[in-house]
Write a structure and sequence with these properties.
Layout (H helix, E strand, L loop, with lengths): L1 E7 L8 H14 L2 E5 L2 E5 L2 H17 L4 E7 L12 H13 L5
Antiparallel strand pairs: 1-3, 1-4, 2-3
Length: 104
């Protein structure tokens, strides 16, 4: 799942690093594998757990006093084989290395 949680109308100066750090700590407590990136966080796990943690993070932002929260969730639910966080990127990088003759 790729997840972005955005409070609307409550952040001073546009900085959200404190809130993002809080959300990342909540993800760490969830036991799910995750990776922060510049535009959100990728989280890996069973679909039911992903939806539950997305809801928990969304609701947490309201608990900070924000009146409006915009949350974007993208889920790729693959059940024919196990895929780990980073596998898709590694696959593309391997193809790129092969098409360049092994040169970066």
């Amino acid at each position: 799942m790729d997840l972005t949680v955005i409070p609307l109308g409550g952040a001073s100066g546009g900085g959200l690093s404190r809130l993002v750090a809080d959300l990342e700590n909540m993800l760490a407590e969830s036991g799910l594998e995750f990776r922060l990136h510049d535009m959100g966080t990728t989280v890996s796990g069973p679909a039911g757990e992903l939806f539950a943690v997305a809801s928990k993070l969304h609701e947490h932002v309201f608990s900070t006093g924000v009146a409006r929260v915009y949350t974007v969730v993208k889920v790729d639910d693959r059940r024919d084989r196990e895929v780990r966080l980073g596998d898709k990127v590694a696959s593309v990088e391997a193809r790129l290395a092969g098409s360049r003759g092994g040169q970066d």
